[in-house]
Amino acid sequence: MVEIRIHGRGGQGVVTASDLVAMAAFAEGRHAQAFPSFGSERTGAPVVAYCRVREEEIRTREPVLEPDLLIVQDPTLLGIIDVFSGLNPQGYVLINSSKRSAELGLTERQESMPKGHFMTIPAADIARKHTGRTVPNAVLLGAAAALTGLYKMESVTHAIMERFPGKVGEMNVAAAQEAYELVNSKREALHA
Question: According to the 3-state scheme, what is the secondary structure of the chain?
Fold first, then answer.
């Protein structure tokens, strides 16, 4: 079973992000579950959402305490919440930021992980370019597909278009595709 934890703030599409991961997994014939954890339910408040993906039925409903994939949609949370708590030592980290790990004070964290398992991408900037909004969820979904191989980009497209039919979906698919290609090019550079 692959367990995913997504950190962000209310209004950034954190819950939608976990739903889209589950939909992408469903599109590939796997079992998945997605569920949020709210503190105060207001825009800007910290929000955590969870997703599990597995070949067999999933029976557990507990929060994800030891994620295999950690997605941080808002880098301002890095200084106020231990987003890395319980992270699988072989896991993956994807952070929405145009800054490098050193600029975020995360060099040690990155160096403690397997090569290519820690990445920052300017997801909000990519989202703004394609949608006019800075909601990074679909962008990070495409980036996570490239980073982890958990699901295919075609499944990301299917999930986004199912959730957001029409022009909104098309813009988000374009943003997710750009992130997918960016992460693939970063991974190729790391292994060159």
Answer: CEEEEEEEECCCCHHHHHHHHHHHHHHCCCEEEEEEEECCCCCCCEEEEEEEEECCCCCCCCCCCCCCEEEECCHHHHHCCCCCCCCCCCCEEEEECCCCCCCCCCHHHHHCCCCCCEEEECHHHHHHHHHCCCCCHHHHHHHHHHHHCCCCHHHHHHHHHHHCCCHHHHHHHHHHHHHHHHHHHHHHHHCC
